[in-house]
Design a protein that fits this description.
Blueprint: H1 3-16, H2 19-25, H3 28-36, H4 38-45, H5 56-75, H6 81-106, H7 109-121
Length: 122
């Protein structure tokens, strides 16, 4: 191992075991976003499910919710980049769900799905 790698590893170990890092791990600045990551993970897993299961009002609410909390994460001191990242991921996932909802209910997706189902049954 080179000296530069050894120094980098030593610096990382020193930081991980520092009082500041332990204090951060025990704070709501860490655990709030970590627990909040369940929302975007669930939305990402739902991207392959049937679009009839998507709730338009809930998706719209979650889009607005994530926009508000992205702003909040940058407005507080100190800035919470973990919370910001969580809501960026959620925003992308919810916008994807919103596009799927709009496509299925308003842009002919339902008719295409019904036509494909009818063609495959014949």
């Amino acid at each position: 191992m080179s000296t530069a790698q050894g120094t980098l590893i030593q610096r990382a170990q020193k930081y991980v075991f520092s009082k500041e890092f332990v204090k951060y791990l025990c704070s709501t600045h860490f655990w709030g976003p970590v627990s909040n990551f369940g929302i975007p993970v669930a939305a990402m897993m739902d991207l392959k499910k049937d679009p009839t299961l998507i709730s338009g009002p809930m998706t719209g609410s979650l889009i607005i919710y994530s926009l508000v909390f992205m702003r909040y994460a940058m407005a507080i001191t100190p800035r919470n980049y973990l919370l910001f990242g969580c809501h960026v991921v959620n925003e992308v996932a919810q916008l994807s769900q919103g596009v799927r909802f709009m496509n299925f209910h308003y842009l002919g997706g339902r008719e295409r799905a019904e036509g494909a189902a009818a063609a495959s049954s014949n």
